[in-house]
Specification:
By secondary structure, this protein is an alpha+beta fold. It has 4 domains: about 200 residues, Jelly Rolls; about 260 residues, TIM Barrel, CATH 3.20.20.80; about 100 residues, no CATH class; about 80 residues, no CATH class. It is built from 13 helices and 49 strands. Strands 17-18-21-24-25-26-27-28 form an 8-stranded parallel β-barrel, surrounded by 5 helices. Strands 4-5-15-7-11-10 form a 6-stranded antiparallel beta sheet, with helices on one face. It has a 6-stranded mixed beta sheet with strand order 30-36-46-49-34-31, with no helix packed on it. It holds the Pfam family NCTSP_N.
């Protein structure tokens, strides 16, 4: 497996697109309203909205700079619109009409001809022909004017340096007041026959195609609700992802709301999914099916806190609600609350019916169900009224301080309650799918297997999940994976398998994710974790998640299988004679100026060695062994180990400095300021010390040592070891001859060192 973090196109394939292509519009809006934009034809889009307040206002946005697509797939930045003429048919219902006061306005944001920041407001009705709800709109950006009434209130627009433009969409009851509408209002706008003409009508569009590979993709609605499903799937397809997509429906955008007590709370009135969410997910299912994808619909117990009924929330012993670290926070539904679980079952059923309507096979995931543990103080949230009534929990102040049998019994009962709720949720999904549904359970290992809370698994990895309660067990551990903590990851996977009993063929692994763009370097560790899972033999490995893949430019590619297997971990079979030749070499470009001064550019940070192990008289047995070894390696096709007679030991080599977290260090051999990566150490020769004291460790493939405990910050980590050099035969032919009785000569047996990419 390989990966690359692309920042921009550099010669990769491009195609062209029409400016204002429906796939690349976005929406934005304030809470609690909801809107979604979907493509309905190559030249058409639709916006679905649900409004709850009298000041709700949605924007349908076109951006001059593509900030959302993968760097290899973005459209070119083009801020000058003066050579463009835009035309479309407008149809709407439940939206303030084109001719109304505070009706649809095209806001153009950018800079004027003098470079000063400026916004212009173009009333669409001034450029429409037809009725207020069914009209053709035509705008020439070279001569367009803002203002409500033309020509009396005309304000010339300079569209030569535009950042973005957006169409405002408001409900009929809009008056700008911070108050609820009398009832939720649904509306829609359809733009069809979208056309852009003129010299500026065409943009370059990235169209790189990554070869299909074996890594799968996860995504989430809360991070991509503002984009069209067609745009998301275009990224997935071009980046080589195929097969199933894990789609987390989120915790903050999918539900209907009702007004109560000065707030808005999730509701089942008229259905559990709001109209915008339903339209977006129908478009996702239809487009995914056309492209050959299947969707695993992921639903969790997490819910946006401001919209969750108070008695539905998990609570700690002191009555405080479970609140996550997001801002604003989300909360966790209590598995013991019948009303909350019934509502969640209705949500699961709604998504399964949506998938069935698209003709897609039903696959459902219960995502990260757990009893929340508060980060400060580690108090478990087992004490909401429904939980108290269901299993009478004993007092537990901290999940990390379980000392009594009553507390352990409480955790067991909480686990049984959680398991029963997840099984019931999966059954609801299966029932809505007509009994044919593959069920998945996703568990987050760093929390449920917290080493400082060994009893937590009683509640948060209950034995009621044991195989075959679900068809597939999905494991996620991004706190470990993203930081390269391969040891904790391996231990967590083993503990989950032992406790729940799912065979590796019934397991999936989710690798990721990178929360902040500044941490994009974590993709290296994530790619390594994904490779480890695939090598372990899990049925599918997913990268979490598409929005971060697009943001950070992550590109994954599979190496050819024969390249992955092109090394035989065996040593050269013959002892090297005294005439062996060793030739280390670098790649240095030397440029000599007219006056004789040189500029030297080192192309390699490490030397590569060449060897000739042939010189010297050999026995016929040696020659036969050499020929057999050459044939077994397929000549130069497969690598092997060679002991360099002049350089085969490292003693007290500095391999790193502790930071209190990292346990994984690479073996290196140092030559003053230069260093050589050691990928083929002799296993039983390796010794590691931390601050001069012998340390326990495990040796992993590629010359990595993983310490039993993270070294303290500033502690020097050193290693001593013997090592071999990875080499291959340099040529496709090997010439030998008989020199005398029972003796032969191999005049030259050239070998070349391999530059291994250590995992």
């Amino acid at each position: 497996m390989g990966h690359w973090l692309a920042r921009a196109r550099d010669g990769q394939r491009e195609e062209v697109m029409q400016r204002f292509d429906p796939r690349f519009w976005t929406v934005n809006f304030p809470r609690p309203m909801m809107a979604a934009v979907t493509t309905t034809r190559p030249d058409a889009l639709r916006v679905d909205c649900v409004f709850y307040k009298r000041d709700d206002l949605a924007g349908l946005i076109w951006e001059a700079e593509d900030r959302h697509d993968h760097p290899l797939l973005r459209y070119e930045t083009a801020r000058d619109f003066r050579q463009c003429r835009l035309r479309f048919r407008w149809r709407s219902a439940g939206i303030r009409a084109l001719d109304a006061v505070q009706g649809p306005v095209l806001t153009i944001e950018g800079r004027d001809a003098g470079g000063a920041a400026r916004s212009w407001y173009v009333r669409l009705w001034n450029y429409a022909s037809g009725s207020p709800q069914d009209a053709t709109v035509a705008i020439n950006f070279a001569s367009v004017e803002g203002g409500f009434l033309l020509p009396d209130e005309a304000v010339p627009v300079w569209a030569g340096d535009v950042d973005r433009m957006f169409v405002s969409l408001a409900p009929p009851g809009y008056d700008g007041a911070d108050a609820a509408l009398a009832a939720p209002a649904e509306g829609w706008v359809a733009l069809t026959d979208i056309a852009c003409e003129g010299p500026g009508a065409v943009l370059a569009l990235g169209a790189a195609v990554v070869p299909e590979h074996g890594l799968r993709l996860a995504s989430g609605y809360d991070d991509s609700y503002h984009l069209t499903p067609a745009r998301l799937l275009r990224n997935a397809l071009h980046l080589g992802y195929r097969g199933p997509i894990v789609h987390y429906v989120g915790m903050s955008h999918y539900f209907r709301l009702e007004a109560a007590s000065g707030g808005f709370y999730v509701s089942a009135r008229g259905g559990v999914l709001n109209v915008a969410c339903a339209a977006w997910h129908r478009a996702l299912a239809d487009a995914a099916l056309r492209l050959g994808y299947t969707v695993i619909w992921s639903l969790s117990y997490e819910l946006f806190d401001a919209h969750c009924w108070g008695d539905w929330k998990q609570r700690a012993l002191d009555g405080s609600p479970a609140l996550t670290g997001w801002s604003p926070p989300s909360t966790l539904l209590s598995p013991a609350h019948a009303g909350a679980m019934d509502w969640l079952a209705q949500v699961a059923a709604a998504f399964m019916r949506l998938a069935a309507a698209a003709g897609m096979p039903a696959r459902f995931q219960v995502g990260e169900p757990w009893w929340w543990v508060q980060p400060d103080g580690h108090a478990p949230c087992l004490y909401d009224a429904a939980a108290v009534a269901a299993f009478a929990p004993a007092p537990i102040a901290s999940i990390r301080d379980i000392t009594t049998a009553a507390q352990r019994a409480t955790l067991d009962r909480a686990g049984a309650c959680l398991a029963a709720s997840t099984v019931a949720l999966a059954a609801a999904a299966r029932g809505a799918a007509g009994g044919r549904c593959i069920t998945h359970l996703l568990t987050y290992l760093p929390t449920v297997l917290d080493p400082l809370a060994p009893e937590a698994k009683r509640a948060n990895m209950p034995v009621g999940w044991a195989w075959p309660a679900f068809d597939v067990l999905q494991l996620e551990d991004y706190d470990w994976a993203a930081t390269g903590d391969a040891v904790s990851s391996a231990q967590g996977v083993a503990a989950a398998a032992e406790r729940l009993g799912y065979p590796v063929g019934a397991q999936h692994y989710l690798a990721g994710f990178v929360l902040r763009a500044r941490d994009r370097g974590q993709w290296r560790a994530i790619a390594r974790a994904a490779a480890t899972a695939r090598a372990r033999g899990v049925a599918e490995t997913f990268v979490w998640a598409l929005p971060q893949v697009m943001r950070d430019g992550f590109v994954h590619f599979d190496l050819e299988e024969d390249a992955m297997q092109a090394f035989d971990d065996v040593g050269f079979p013959l002892a090297l004679g005294r005439d062996v030749e060793v030739t280390p070499h670098f790649s240095t470009q030397i440029v000599t100026a007219a006056g004789g001064a040189e500029q030297r550019i080192a192309g390699w940070a490490e030397a590569l060695s060449q060897y000739d192990v042939g010189p010297g008289l050999r026995s016929e047995a040696d020659i036969a062994a050499l020929l057999a070894f050459f044939r077994a390696r397929l000549g130069p096709a497969r690598g092997f180990r060679l002991r360099d007679p002049f350089d085969w030991q490292g003693r007290g080599e500095a391999i790193g400095t502790g930071d209190g977290v990292n346990r994984r260090f690479a073996l290196v051999r140092r030559y003053d300021a230069a260093e050589r990566r050691i990928t083929r150490p002799v296993a039983d020769s390796v010794r590691v010390a931390v601050a001069g004291r012998t340390a326990g460790f495990r040796l992993n493939d590629g010359g990595w040592v993983v310490l039993d405990a993270a070294p303290a910050a500033g502690a020097a980590v050193t290693a001593s070891f013997d090592f071999d050099v990875p080499v291959r035969f340099a040529q496709d032919r090997l010439s030998v001859s008989r020199a005398t009785y029972l003796a032969g000569v191999a005049a030259s047996v050239p070998l070349v060192e391999l530059r291994e990419v250590a995992p």
